[in-house]
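ok so i was messing around last nite and threw this chain in just to see what happens. nothing serious, just curious
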Amino acid sequence: MVNFSIDQIREIMTLRNNIRCISVIAHVDHGKSTLTDSLVCKAGIIARAKAGDMRFTDTRADEQERGITIKSTGVSLYYELDPTASKIPEGQINKYLINLIDSPGHVDFSSEVTAAPRGTDGALVVVDCVEGVCVQTETVLRQALGERVRPVLMGKIIDSAVLELQLDPEDAYQSS
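result:
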């Protein structure tokens, strides 16, 4: 069930300091759409059981058929800080509108990849911990930094280092 109403979104749209525009960038198949699904699920837009498999922002038929993101797609999410879990100054509004852009990772769609961070404040840079930083990861990060976008590193599939590579958890931590 959706965790917000249209009225809540409209209220936040008038508060410029409470709007964040974030792009999700990474190498192809490093989990951008999966991460986006998880965030959309947290907002209550899709069911938890479908998060990661739905590919909510892959709206085109060819994207669904091929299982890849071809066009950057945005979604607006409502987020409210838990006042008991965070120290919010008295009188400060703890509600945010997050405009999230899921971008393609494949080099063939580089115009979409380049355009995604241009209109954003920050970028979630997704890195598969098994494959590590790849060429396209470096390229999209360099482009984002060139646009003065603040990056936030998101390690994905961290459990795979332990399960697939059979690394000791401490060794996986030390080698990352």
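not much to say yet. The mean pLDDT is 77.
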